[in-house]
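Morning. Coffee machine broken again, so started the prediction first thing and wrote up yesterday's gels while waiting. Chain of 249 residues, entered below exactly as on the submission form.
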Amino acid sequence: MGKNFEGRQFTGMIKFTPPLYKQRYEFVKDLVRKYKPKKVADLGCADCTLLWMLKFCSCIEVLAGLDICAAVMKEKMHRLTPLPADYLEPSERSLTVTLHQGSVAHKDPCMLGFDLVTCIELIEHLQDSELEKFPEVVFGFMAPSMVVISTPNSEFNTLLPGVTVFRHPDHKFEWDRAQFQSWAQDTAQRYDYSVEFTGVGNPPTGMEDVGFCTQIGVFVKKYPQTREPVLCEKPTEAAYKTVSILLFI
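Came back before lunch.
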């Protein structure tokens, strides 16, 4: 945190417009519009909101969601089902949406071959043992062309009323910008990715030193066409349980 911020106390009310979660999802949608991936996986998809938003992106042919909690997905997955208009006026493209229950610390062949993998507000929920395995699963095994990871910026917490330690009781940690960038750069170097940092949720005027409320790392595979595959043990059995498969034809 910059020295200009030290000793000052913010007494106003933080209100994000649009809401912070929508800003995170719109960030992903903007990337999809720009790079037009055909296969997208959302790890930690929870209530499937991001998947629901992405199903309207015409470039996407395959969507997959993964979450440790099947109940949350089942409660909201009705939003992903085809609408009557999808049958009356079929699209020129086909779309398959699949939901899986499982841990991001485990490898499953069903997650191979994706162009874009998103991890929106996920890593801070992982135990140390899961976080240790996460890079190898996502960057080593899945090895998509692009990975988007968002996580809270702990430097912003001093501006959030009622936040004394973490923003959510299930968070195992919250990193400042230096910690996140160090982890991200080490991961990118290890698996031959580049990484750029940005965020959403602008700080109040005069408090810019704290950075964005949500920090984001965008990882791009350096040699998607020519790099030799990462040598890792391929699992022989599925590690995830399929919760739902939806077809839009």
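The longest helix spans residues 20-35. Going to sketch it on the whiteboard this afternoon.
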